[in-house]
Structures are given as structure tokens and as C-alpha cells.
Predict the structure of Nucleoside diphosphate kinase.
Amino acid sequence: MERTFVMAKPDAVSRGLVGKIISTFEARGMKLVSLKVMTPTEEIAADHYAEHKGKGFYPGLISFLTSGPVVPMVFEGKSAISVGRQIIGATRDPAPGSLRGTYAESIDHNVVHGSDAPESAKREMGIWFPEL
Ligand code: IDP
């Protein structure tokens, strides 16, 4: 069993897509381990997206993530990280039927985040769920 970090971004919360995200993961055999609702601080957003600091889209990325409530989650399952990325869809040209392929309005308003590797899953769970 593996754990992955998943987050419904502010557009998912405002558009009422949180339930759809959770039920899609559950339908693929993923078990919800942790969940909360919070509006990210600049600090937590900067920590989460540290690898993108300095890029042209970074200021917009941080202001988007801090614009309203998000729902950070941890899911557990077999190959949870790669299955999660498949469920969510790629950053660019997400597959039809994936969450981003179905719901993303653009590359920067793309509804959901999911860890892309074991190290990032561990790092992101530490940022959003320091109490775990
Ligand atoms: P990921 O969310 O699919 O893991 P990352 O490369 O980690 O993709 O980028 C983080 C987020 O930054 C993406 O989900 C997307 O919203 C945004 N992003 C990435 N590249 C661009 C870009 O070239 N223009 C605008 N936004 C971008």
C-alpha cells in the first residue's frame, strides 16, 4: 500500500467538484485517510510550489492557490501515486475522462493536484498534514 497527497484546488471547491474528486478516487479503490478544508497562507503555498519559484507563472500560481479554500487529502491504495496521477490527468493535454480532462478550464485552473513521486508525496503530506 502507498499513500499520495491530493488537493482539491480553489476552483474545485468554488465549483462544487470536491465530492466528484473524492468519489472518483474511491471508485478506483483508493481509501481516504485524511482530509481538511483550509485557505492556504502564502507560506504554505510557496512551500508546496517551491520548485516553480522564479518561473513566469509562479506569482499567478500562488495567488490562485491562496484565493480561497482548498481541500488537502491523503489517499491510500496500491500504486496510489501513479494511479492518482492517472485519475487526475497530465499537466498539459490531460486525457479525456481524467479529472483535469473533464473539468479543467485551463492549465492554471486545473481543479486538482496530485503528488508525482514518492519523495514529493512525503514532502507534500508533511507540508499540509504536519500533525500526521
Ligand atoms: P502538476 O500540477 O501536474 O504536478 P506542475 O508542473 O507541478 O504540474 O505545476 C504545478 C501547477 O502549476 C500546475 O498544476 C498548473 O496549474 C501550473 N502550471 C504549470 N505549468 C504552467 C504553465 O506553463 N503556465 C501556467 N500554469 C502552469
